[in-house]
Structure formats: C-alpha cells, structure tokens
Amino acid sequence: MSSLLGIDNGLTVTKAVIFDADGSQLSVARRRVPQSMPHARWVERDMAGLWQATAEAIREAITLSGRPASDIKAVAATAHGDGLYLLDRNRRPLGPGILSLDSRAGEIVDRWSQGSVFADALALTGQVPHASSPSSLLVWLRENDPERFDRIAHIFACKDWLRFCLTGTIGTDLTEASTSFTNVRTQSFAPEAMGIFGLEGVFEALPAVAHSADVVGYVTADAAALTGLAEGTPVACGLHDVTASALGMGGHEEGVVSIVAGTYSINEIVSIEPRLDPRWFCRNAIDLGRWNNMSISPASTANYDWFLDTLCRPEQDEAKRTGGSIHEMLAAEIDVALGKPSTIFFHPYLFGSPYGNAASASFLGLHGWHDRGDMLKAVLEGIVFNHRTHVDALRGGFAVREVRLTGGGSRNPAFAQMFADVLDVPVIVTSTDEAAAFGAALCAGAAVGLFASPQQGARAVSKTSREYLPDRARSAVFEDRFSLYCRIAESLKPLWPEIERLAGQSPEGAA
C-alpha cells in the first residue's frame, strides 16, 4: 500500500493530510498556530511553535490513518506565500516569521508607488510589490531593524521552513522563488531584481531553487522522532499554496480560472507566455515555460471569520462546547437574508484590498430594521464581489473556458451558488476538501514516481463534486449591485488616506 503526506500551513491553522495513491483522503489533523500582533499592522508567528504544531498534526494524522508510517512514500509541504522567514548564520530562526497579512511595510510601498520602482519591478519581475512581499519587508527591516537585517543568512518562505525542519536542507521551488526577485522571462533569481529595491547585499541569502516535484531531502532522525514519520522518507520541494490549491482542484492549466476563497481572495490562471499587468502577479508556474497569473488580495473569508469572532461570540462558544458547526447555526439567518432585497453593501477590506494599503472595510446602507443575517449576507456578497474584481481583470487578459472554486466557503452551497450568479458563469467545485494539501501530495507522488507529473496525477485522481449554474435573474440583480459596489469603492479612494490619518490623532492631542 502507498500513501502520501501533504502538509498545508495556512495563516491560522497548520494541517497534515494523508492521501491514498488514488487520491482519496485517509486522514487529516489540524493545529491552530497563534498569531502575534505586537503593533498595528504587524502579523507574526513563532517559527519554532509553527514546527511543533505541524509535527503534532503529522503524528496525529498518521495515527488516524490506521496505517504505519512506513506506508507514506513521500512528503511535501505547501504554505502561505509571501511574508518572510529568516535564518541566521547558525541556521536558527532570526526572529518570528512574518505572515502575508502583515502590512507594516505599507508606507514603503506607497513611497515606491510615487517613483519608478513600480514600473521597474513590473517590467523585470512581472509584478508590482505589495506590503507583505519579501522585497518590501526586507527593506522595512533594513530601515527599522538594521541589527536583525545584518544577521540575515537565509531568506525563504513558510513552506521552506517546514522543509528545513523535516530534512535539514535549505532551498525553495520555482513558484515560491518568484514572489519578488526573479526575472519574469528567465524565471530565475536576478541580481538586477534585487537592485530595484536596493537589496543587492543580501542576494547571496536567497535559496537554491528546485522543481516542486524534486526530492530535496529525507526525513531526519530528529524529525522522525517528533512527527512519527519513518526516518529516511523522501521529501519533495513543495510549492506556494496558491499554486498548490489550483493543482489540487485540477485547475493548474491554461484556460482555467482557479478561485480560492480562503483568507486571501485568490484568482489565478496559467499561461504559456508572460503577460504583464499591474492588476495581477505574473509568477512562475510549476514548470519552466509556464506562468501563473495571480490576481489576489487579502480580502476574502478572513472578513467572514472576523464577523463570526466579533459579532457571533455566543454561537462560537456554543459550537465549541457542543462540537457543532457555527456555519450551520447561522445558515438559517443567512438563508432568510438571501431571500429578500437589501440596501447593505460591505467592502471586505479589513486586512487589505485591491486598492492599496490605505483602504479599509465598511458597511454602507445599514438601517435600524436590518439584522445580523442581513449583515452576514452583505459580508458574503462583498467577498464574492472582491473575487469578481480580480476575475474580471484576468478575463480581460486571458481566454477563460472554465472556472473552478475551492476554499472553506466552497463547501457552502449558497456561497458557491453566489459565485456562479455574480460571475455569471458555471462554477465547478471539486470533491477535494483539502486542495492545497492535495496539491502538495501530488508533488510528493510525482517525486517518487507514483505520477508522471503533478498535473497528470491531478487529472488522474481529481473528481468533480458539483457544477453550479448561474441563475439569470439573480445574476442581473448582482450585476446592478456590483456596479454600485465598484462606484462606491472608487468614490472612497481619496477618503481612505484621510480616514487612516485619524489613527495618529488622540482626544488628548486634539484638546
């Protein structure tokens, strides 16, 4: 018997998922990984704590699978992209890992937008830098924590840290390498890319690059003792979680828009040539000669989670006490709200937006007769509208024949139907609950010869769960609402910076 372990580390939860070689899921184990927010706009995590939580999840997943660890033929990890994970010269964590929700470098990005950096970066690297990109975070460290910056020996991403903990080897893959510093045409690290940001001095700290399905090491004795894995189990290089999700749902190919409704609003499509536009990142796909065009923002279901944590605390506590589902508890409220018209709009910019660092979230059109269900409906609609903003950009640049959806929200039929209605196209939801972990497992399987390639493995074992067809009447209503949603956002653009300036004022100072 053969099985594969896919590790998926998100922004709040790390998961270990074991799949049979036929793609069926055998077990999953999760651990929450606490975030630290010591200052406004800082979002961090302890790197040692992340590894400990991941190791616990792996051990539990092995137990739940009912199979011996020796049955696992290979392992690969995926994790949130961007952000920053650093090691010093002793190969020890150099401070906490910085997550892709972090926006401390927003002022640096705003400064770059006023000069030539944006245009230079787009032309050479295929993307405009953003607040949580490695480029902006490294410059922030150089300007604000020079002692830490001077001690940098290795620069890599979250999943590369997990690979290091498993194998003791340092490196990254093509997809992760292209978050800031690759030449978009050669698809390899370029000193001139570092030069755009004044970071030439740390070019040597960038990791070696391998294919996502290359074996890059083996589980060490220490890692085996901690995780329960068999010592010597092959470990594949792994990949960025955006790409892993598209691969896991069978959508990492030309003509398919893959949507991940998770913490981030992720919308992506593969091309056979680089096509540059500031509305998307043109990054490396799994294979050389392929590019993954990603239109994204940190403005998806993190807004829904915030609403639940902030305004549904009694139900959250009840769900934890009884082991029930908070989503099922609130379903009736949402269903009632979906069945009636509403004046409420929600712009889901709690953690970021397509409009830059200054944008903030808001409810508009709220009246005294509205209830929590009406607000929840507006939150879900705002999330889908934000996805449409990104999908429309991709549809303007690429031929689209199919749309696929995954992420926690995709398991809610009403939410999935809203995507079909808002996008006005059929939307396919696959049966793989853990698409990103499955994408990592496909790379692990290809690394040891179980699949000819990760993509062929996906085509062989992925299964379609359901296709949602747009309802023309609802699509027409959403079209009118989306138009107004966009006009409101445009009208707020000059006001958002003024709103943010209020954060620097205090009642005492005003007096």
**By CATH's scheme, which homologous superfamily of the domain at 3-249 applies?**
ATPase, nucleotide binding domain
Report strand %: 15-25%
Structural class category: alpha/beta
Arithmetic mean of pLDDT: 94
Total number of strands: 22
Shape: globular
GO biological process, one term: carbohydrate metabolic process
Family: Belongs to the FGGY kinase family.
Keywords: Kinase, Transferase
InterPro entries: ATPase_NBD, Carb_kinase_FGGY, Carb_kinase_FGGY_CS, FGGY_C, FGGY_Carb_Kinase, FGGY_N
Report a brief summary of the structure.
Residues 258-447 form the Carbohydrate kinase FGGY C-terminal domain. This protein is 41% helix and 19% strand.
Would you write up a description of this structure?
The protein is globular. The model has no long low-confidence stretch (mean pLDDT 94). The chain has a domain at 3-249: Nucleotidyltransferase, domain 5 (2-Layer Sandwich), CATH 3.30.420.40. Helix 10 crosses helix 16, helix 14 (372-395) packs across helix 15 (413-423) and helix 16 packs across helix 17 (454-461). A hairpin with a 6-residue loop joins strand 16 (281-284) and strand 17 (291-297). The strands form 7 sheets. Strands 16-17-15-14-20-21-22 form a 7-stranded mixed beta sheet, with helices on both faces. It has a 5-stranded mixed beta sheet with strand order 3-2-1-5-13. The chain has 20 helices and 22 strands. The longest helix is centred in the last third of the chain and has 24 residues, at 372-395. It has 511 residues and is of the alpha/beta class.
